[in-house]
Amino acid sequence: MTTTRQGYVEELEELEKRALGGLDLVTETLTRTLEAIEHSDVELAEMVIADDDRIDGRYLEVHQSILTLLATQQPVATDLRLISALLHVMKSIERMGDQCVNIAKVIPLAGNEPPRDEEMITDIVTMGQQAKSLVAQAKTGFATRDVELSRDLVRQDDVIDNLNRRCFARAIEIGDDVDDREWGITMMLVARALERIGDNAVDIGEQTAFVVTGLFREFEDASHPGPAVG
Amino acid sequence: MIETTANPEAPARREGEQPAPDTDHVDEPQRTARGWGAGKAAAAAKRVDLRGVNLFYGDFHAVADVDMTIEPNKVTALIGSSGCGKTTVLRSINRMHELTPGARAAGEIEIDGENIYAPGVDPVVVRRLVGMVFQNPNPFPTMSIYENAAAGLALNSAKLSKSELDEVVERSLRGAHLWDEVKDRLDKQGSGLSGGQQQRLCIARAIAVEPEVLLMDEPCSALDPVATLAIEDLLQELKATYTIAIVTHNMQQASRASDHTAFFNLERSGDPGRLIEIGETTKIFSNPDKQATEDYVSGRFG
């Protein structure tokens, strides 16, 4: 058996590379975002906001390539699942970029003074590091079609979810001072954005499983909590 | 298992040719002692079961061990690369396969539980109840549009009155979505129509005799895209009345127009063709079970 449609096969591989490359852009942005949080660096935060155009641009580029492939090559079966999955993956990447922007926008609100609660900052930075690790794991899982590695994202995401709950508890306990409370609520927004990035990474893992198995199932159903589905 | 060789009494016909309207079978459709096809008031879609079907051309084993069901009121597409046996399978369903000298069929093909290869079954009766539309539109060239639509009746039925015949011709042409285009020139030659119209005329001729099953062998491969889509739309209407099996090389056609898809393949040249996978068309084109099916529908088969 010889392989036909070599050009199409290469186009499809390139498309996947460009889409997953969007996750590297997210990693870069996330690194800067965490640095901006840690050092209350408003300038760096502004760079994060400006740089989101790169991720949005990648989204548009991959989206256009997908439309062209669909219109000209009529992909079916695994190819079609891959393309459908890449659309979802790209959307998740675009959302992750937007979450970094959301964080960057609230950094100036937290002010230039030292943090009101060191432990909460430590938790948030840990959440961010964990989110970066999830992004990398989601990329590897997709690129190698590793369903087990993708499913493990749920366990890794639990770390972020637990830290998020702890941040929430600390924000409540932060005291009566109005400025402290404002800072605490602002940091809750940051924690919430990082928690969403973790969820987006899990979404990418679900797409990996869809490409491999042909069945779409949420790893965890937020509206029907329970043990992770099959 | 019943073995059937070419019926020595069957008039020799060239491959792909419709029976000429000059045979002895001009009286009531023949019925077998087992009542096959008897008591049929109107056409009703029938289920076709193939069991252990093996097809031969002389010593050449063309198709091996096909087990499949063609569901009533559905369009079933037979796909696969050239030489995989899909057309041979199609032609075995109305016993046209055995018209090729030396060709032979083994196994069972049942239409609603009645084996069409059972001893005593007249292949001509089978062919009346299982109509065939061919790749190249083949209206009888010297006949008018009207005569073409009525050709199968002249062959198969007792003499109808002129008004009865008019009725059947109009119904068939309407059924094939051709009536409005030809109603004012029914006495003109069928060969003067466009390719797409000629093919619809052939479909009208096939459904005039109210078959139970309609077989189509690449009915659109000689047609332009507009005529092709017209035939595909027609399939969706015809399946309300008939069981339809269609051989096509056009993968988009199979995915657009069929409910079930059967993929045939042969491992290497000289091997018999085999049924690899049959299933809902949506499944075959989105998540087939077999890698060979995936390779074929993705166009990665060289």
Tell me what the structure shows.
The complex is a heterodimer of chains A (230) and B (302). Chain A is built from 6 helices and no strands. Chain A is mainly alpha-helical and 230 residues long. In chain A, helix 2 (42-73) runs antiparallel to helix 3. Chain B has 302 residues and is of the alpha/beta class. Helices cover 30% and strands 22% of the residues of chain B. Chain B contains 10 helices and 11 strands. Classes of the chains: A mainly alpha (230), B alpha/beta (302). At the A-B interface, helix 3 of A face helix 8 and helix 10 of B.
How would you briefly describe this protein structure?
The complex is a heterodimer of chains A (230) and B (302). In chain A, 81% of the residues lie in helices and 0% in strands. Chain A has six helices and no strands.
Question: What's the SSE blueprint?
Answer:
The complex is a heterodimer of chains A (230) and B (302).
Chain A: H1 6-38, H2 42-73, H3 77-110, H4 118-143, H5 147-172, H6 178-213
Chain B: E1 3-5, E2 48-57, E3 60-70, E4 75-79, H1 86-92, E5 103-111, E6 114-115, H2 123-129, E7 130-133, H3 145-156, H4 162-175, H5 179-182, H6 195-208, E8 213-217, H7 225-238, E9 243-247, H8 251-257, E10 260-265, E11 274-280, H9 281-286, H10 291-297
Parallel strand pairs in B: 4-9, 4-10, 7-8, 8-9
Antiparallel strand pairs in B: 1-5, 2-3, 2-5, 5-6, 10-11
Distance between the termini of chain B: 36 Å
Biggest β-sheet description of chain A:
none
| Helix and strand element order of chain B | EEEEHEEHEHHHHEHEHEEHH
Percent in strands of chain B: 15-25%
Give the mean pLDDT of chain B: 85
- Share of helical residues of chain A: over 70%
Largest interface: A-B, 16 and 15 residues
Strand content range of chain A = under 5%
Series of H and E elements of chain A: HHHHHH
Q: Considering DSSP H and I runs of 4 or more, what fraction of the residues of chain B is helical?
A: 25-40%
Please summarize the sheet with the most strands of chain B: 6 strands, mixed
- Low-pLDDT stretches of chain B: 1-42
- Overall 3D shape of chain B: globular
Subunit organisation of the chains? heterodimer
Q: What is the number of E strands of chain A? A: 0
